[in-house]
Amino acid sequence: MPAVIQLEDFHKTYRTGEIEVRAVRGVNLIAEPGEFVAIMGSSGSGKSTLMNTVGCLDRPTQGKCLIDGVDIGSLSRNELADLRNRKLGFVFQGFNLLARTTALENVQLPMLYARPRIAVSEQNRRAAAALELVGLGERMDHTPSRLSGGQQQRVAIARALVNRPTLLLADEPTGNLDSRTSIEIMGIFQKLNDEGMTVVMVTHELDIAHYCKRIVVMRDGLVRSDTPVTARLNALDELQKLEAEQKAVQLNP
Fold first, then answer.
1. Quick check: 192 and 170 in contact, CB under 8 A?
2. Where are the domains of the chain?
3. Domain spanning 5-251: which superfamily?
4. Contact 141, 102 (CB under 8 A)
5. Is the pLDDT of residue 211 over 70?
6. What's the pLDDT tens digit per position in 134-164?
7. Taking 70 as the threshold, does the pLDDT of residue 253 lie above it?
8. Is the pLDDT of residue 116 over 90?
């Protein structure tokens, strides 16, 4: 089985007029099936450029980026779009939900671009199953304005899962959420990962990164460290601790 992600001497350079910006400078990185990787780094470190390339939204200037053994540099624009839709799921910090459509309709969106076409009845079934998976089975007919921030992020996760991707990419998925909701979202990611899904997440929060299995730190376009998480946090345990602390405060105000 090939690596889910394989970067070989990956460089990405942007040009604005006469200015050349070397965003990523010779990164070698492999993510095997079933890994849960956090990518960290300050603004300008190259982590977003790396994620955009892994997400088939960009191409290397030099070197290779392989997704499930496929070199994305050799693909046409349509082939890249097809690979994104079949292999990748995206979760964003800003949710990116359509305001006037229900949770069910938002989750159905990626299936509208699937080839071969998916029957409407199957779209409904798969979207409903994805919402059940993230605990929103009773809110399928709610529009985003009737959902909390955490519930909207759950809809975004369901949308990312509905095409059964090989790889789930999450860009600051807890950045707009409170502590409890962030732990709940990380619990969903941990459950998906435990079931075999490969998850790669960009975060600037070290405590959130410790829910993952591996932390990659980037700086100045290079990988500066790549280490396993030895003291990994368990979302279920953390929620139980948080509930105990809140109960103690209520009993002893």
1. no
2. 5-251
3. P-loop containing nucleotide triphosphate hydrolases (3.40.50.300)
4. yes
5. yes
6. 999 999 999 999 999 999 999 999 999 999 9
7. no
8. no
DSSP secondary structure letters along 132-188: HHTT-TT-TT--GGGS-HHHHHHHHHHHHHTT--SEEEEESTTTTS-HHHHHHHHHH
> Residue 162 and residue 109: Cα distance in Å, rounded?
9
Q: How far is CA 119 from the centre of its chain?
A: 27
Residue 224's closest CA among 215, 233, 232? 215
Give me the count of residues in the chain.
Answer: 253
Residue 75, phi then psi, degrees to nearest 5: -95, 150
53: pLDDT strictly greater than 80: yes
**Straight-line distance from the first to the last Cα atom of the chain, in angstroms, rounded to the nearest whole number:** 56
In this prediction, residues 213-232 reach a mean pLDDT of 96
Token readout for 165 is 């991707």
pLDDT of 41 reads: 93
> Which residues face 218 on adjacent strands?
223
- Residue bearing tokens 């909701």: 181
Token pair recorded at residue 66: 């392989």
